Amino acid sequence: MSNAPCYDIAIIGGGVNGCGIARDAAGRGLSVLLAEKDDLASGTSSASTKLIHGGLRYLEHYEFRLVRESLTEREVLLAMAPHIVWPLRFVLPHHRALRPAFLIRLGLLLYDHLGGRKLLPASRSLDLRRDPAGAALKPEFTRGFEYSDCWVEDARLVVLNAADAAQRGADIRVRTEVTAARRAGDRWRVELTDSLTGQVSTAEARCLVNAAGPWVAEVIARTLGLNSKLGVRLVKGSHIVIKRIFDHDRAYILQNADRRIVFAIPYERDFTLIGTTDIDFNAGPGEVEISAEETAYLCKVVSDYFKQPVVPEDVVWSYSGVRPLFDEGGTSAQETTRDFVLERSGEAGEAPLLNIFGGKITTYRYLAEQALKKLADRFPEAGPAWTAGAGLPGGDFPVDGFESLVGEISTAHPYLAPGQARRLCRAYGTRVRGLLEGAESLADLGIDFGGGLTQREVEYLCRREWAVRSEDILWRRSKLGLRLSEVEKTRLAEWLQGRSRAQARAAK
User: Fold this and answer.
1) Pick from 16-30, 316-330, 431-445: least confident
2) For residues 325 and 336, is the Cβ–Cβ distance under 8 A?
3) Rounded distance between C-alpha atoms, residue 24 and residue 37, angstroms
4) Closest-CA residue to 394 (of 464, 445, 446, 458)
5) Which pLDDT score is estimated for 383?
6) Radius of gyration of the chain (CA)
7) Is the pLDDT of residue 352 over 80?
8) How far apart are CA 87 and CA 151, in angstroms?
9) In sequence order, what are the beta bridge partners of 173?
10) Whole-model pTM?
């Protein structure tokens, strides 16, 4: 008889789907193990356009059900996490040579009503000759449309789902790779390898969930030694960040002659985020980088609309990710569905395997519900679906209550610069109260690493949010990598290394 711990569910992958399933399952009273070989959200889930949206362009492909589900989830997520999700208005300048105005207006009317919109304002037409949104555009763009979607701090969404799962009893193991898994009757026997120490351990589970994203097929074939008739189409999406090129808080959605769209979005107060590309990717889902051709493409699309041209030399940062789209044999990357497919396998008496193909960040919570529904017969003792009305950590305040929270924290901690107080509230919501508890001056927050990042916050991220390396903090838990100098980044990395060495010595 094995001495390995046994869980109800073992999950491979610490992206948004894996962490969403872990949270949902733990909240139903199931025991959960989640293993992520790198950092949480280290792949696709931190490389999105950072939007919670219905997918306006999906209407052209007649994916009405996907749009309806996504629009419904948009408001659910806004209510769950108003610190990291917030409304964003999009301006669509009308390009006469592309889609006709009546078709855009019809699409926006459908978009307004398909998902039971309650919290967000409806779409409207704009006279760009008079509206401030037209000031940054070339004069030939005189007419436009405006509609609502939401912004999300994507990597923080993943981390907060993991944190909530852990609070509910889930065993979250970051930098732990599932190196093998085999069925042993009605259980899975899972081999786990610590990526930092090389230590190997085992665990058992009543079912296994493969939420490895771009690596889903590799896990099936290599880690599990199985086959599947389904697969994913890997598509690279790249983004560039430049200094801010317009002075308001609305975003732009820009049509291009190739029928694709590109977003230009206010980003981290002083920047503009531009993306994304859609390119079939066949090199495997390892380290990916933007190509010179992608950079030129994004610069050209934006320059076609804005008075201020954008050139590759303007780029201050870029990122790329590989999206695992369900492979339905579409003719082009942009035509491939963003919907998901759940595949359950296992004969009677065998421990089930659930493979997740595709999906999008907007529908991750709904996907998790459907995953638990797919496994319901295995867990008759599990509680009912519960996540739709349950806030994520730090999100226990009204949708319109963010400014009140900022005011409260600024009053309680007057030593914080206004931008610093706002950033902390955005990142941690009401949890910022605990992070700052007892501090009466900046000195009480310890070392200042630059950009408003303090030792108190870094220690919180290491202790409560599984951060280990500087990139975990500067590019996933925050985007302070845009603000710290190279000297400051090095100082943070060295401090973290020293902390890890001290912990290792204490553990001996």
Assistant:
1) 316-330
2) yes
3) 21
4) 464
5) 97
6) 23
7) yes
8) 6
9) 35
10) 0.95
Is-contact 240 267, C-beta < 8 A?
Answer: no
Short-list 204, 155, 200, 209, CA closest to 466: 155
- Cis bond leading into 276, ω under 30°? yes
- Residues in contact with 305: Cβ distance below 8 Å, sequence separation at least 6, in sequence order: 93, 137, 138, 141, 252, 254
> What is the signed CA dihedral for 66, 67, 68, 73, rounded to 10 degrees?
90
pLDDT average, residue stretch 141-167? 97
DSSP 414-442: TTS-HHHHHHHHHHHGGGHHHHTTT--SG
Closest CA to 480 of 414, 396, 419, 439: 419
CA distance 330 to 231: 13
Measure Cα distances from 419 to 437, 444, 460 in Å: 19, 19, 20
Is the pLDDT assigned to residue 275 strictly greater than 80? yes
d(CA 420, CA 155): 20
Q: What long-range pairs does 466-473 form, CB within 8 A, spacing at least 24? A: 466/39, 466/40, 466/159, 466/162, 466/172, 466/174, 467/39, 468/39, 468/174, 468/175, 468/196, 468/496, 468/500, 469/39, 469/493, 469/496, 470/496, 471/39, 472/39
pLDDT, tens digit, for every residue of 414-438?
999 989 999 999 999 999 999 999 9
Q: What's the rounded Cα separation, in Å, for the pair 32 and 38?
A: 19
97, 104, 138: which is closest to 124 by C-alpha? 104
What distance in Å separates the CA atoms of residue 97 and residue 147, rounded to the nearest whole number?
Answer: 21
Average pLDDT, the chain: 93
Residue with tokens 């491979």: 12
Q: For 204-237, write each residue's pLDDT tens digit.
A: 999 999 999 999 999 999 999 999 888 888 999 9
Structure tokens at 55: 């997918």
The pLDDT of residue 106 is: 87
> 361, 16 in Cβ contact below 8 A?
yes
CA of 361: how far to CAs of 15, 50, 138, 151, 215, in Å?
Answer: 10, 9, 33, 11, 17
Rounded to an integer, what distance in angstroms lies between the CA atom of residue 282 and that of residue 279?
10
Please name which of 230, 318, 335, 226 lies closest in space to residue 280, comparing C-alpha atoms.
335
Q: What is the pLDDT of residues 472-490, one digit of tens each?
A: 999 999 999 999 999 999 9
Q: Amino acid identity, residue 422? A: R
What secondary structure does DSSP assign to 130-191, as a single string?
Answer: TSGGGTTB-TT--EEEEEEEEEE-HHHHHHHHHHHHHHTT-EEEETEEEEEEEEETTEEEEE
Cβ atoms of residues 133 and 250 within 8 Å: yes
- Residue pair 447/474 in contact (Cβ under 8 Å)? The answer is no
Q: What is the pLDDT of residue 337?
A: 66
Judge contact between 7 and 171, C-beta under 8 A.
yes
Q: Is the pLDDT of residue 286 over 90?
A: no
